[in-house]
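Worked example 2:
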Amino acid sequence: MASPTLIRPRRPAPVFVCRKCLKRSDDAKGIKKAIKRETRLAAPSGRKPPRVVMTSCFGLCPKRSVVVTGGVCAARGDYVLVATRDDVAGALACLHDDQNRSS
C-alpha cells in the first residue's frame, strides 16, 4: 500500500463566515466586502489570498454581530464576532495571529 502524500496548498486557511448572522446584520453587504478586501490586502505578495467561505450556522447566534473563524481558530473552536465593517481588520488580524502563533 502506498504511503500518504502531504500536500501544502498555495493559499492560507479559509475564513469561514456564518451566512445566517450575515443575513441578519444591518451592514451585511459592507461587512462581506470588508472581509474580502482585508483578506486580499493581508495576503503576502505573490501568494493567493484565503478564500472567504459562507457557512451554515455555528450555533452561537449573537444579537448584532457576525461570527467569523478560520484556520487554527476553527480547529480549536474559537470564534471572532464582527459588529461593523470597521471591526473586520482587527478580527482578521486576530485570526491571522493565532495561525502564526501555533505554526
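The mean pLDDT is 90. Residues 44 and 84 are 25 Å apart (CA to CA).
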